[in-house]
Specification:
Layout: H1 2-11, H2 15-35, H3 46-54, H4 58-65, H5 71-84, H6 90-101, H7 105-108, H8 112-142, H9 146-202
Helix pairs in contact: 1-9, 2-8, 2-9, 3-4, 4-5, 5-6, 6-9, 8-9
Amino acid sequence: MEAILAWIEKGGIVMYPLILLSILSWYVIIERAVNLRVKNFLPRNLTEIKALISRGDYESALKISTVVDHPFTKAVSVTLEEYLKGKKEKGYLIRLMEEELSALVPKIEKNLPILSTTASVAPLLGLFGTITGLIKVFQAYAITTQGEAMNLLAKGISEVLVAAATGLGVAIPALLAYWVYKAIGNHILDRISEEAREIIHSLE
């Protein structure tokens, strides 16, 4: 604990916003690791709905699609209602379903802006700490004796390096996690789109 406090003290004032960004980014990394899964964005009764549609039992499929409160089942029910009204053009039904499913996009991309912001801002804060550390060094160097100046120079360089290293240490995991979760999110969206198109093409 003392080593951590000493590290923070060496890095200067920029260490506090960097610590805050680190806490936020790791919260998002853990939250997305737990929740960003395909099964969380598809309804549990999807297999049953698809089986009923493939058998042509659209009324039953419509009925059970309203049982689970889920954006996907809502999209299915809206699409089936239009289909049963006689609007059977596949292109129209696909557009309708994708429009309804767009409600899932913010949930899939939830909190990712925090990671991208952290990845962008943390290195800049580290750079700011570097500059302020150098300013302190040269200001002190100008008004002290040579022996004291060397001690201040060493301390200032330490602050410069700690701030820069911490900025990069906060930014790199956030940037990696952002692109990993972005790729996972795109995969989930593709899977949802495939399921939607499969349902549409099952309609006779």
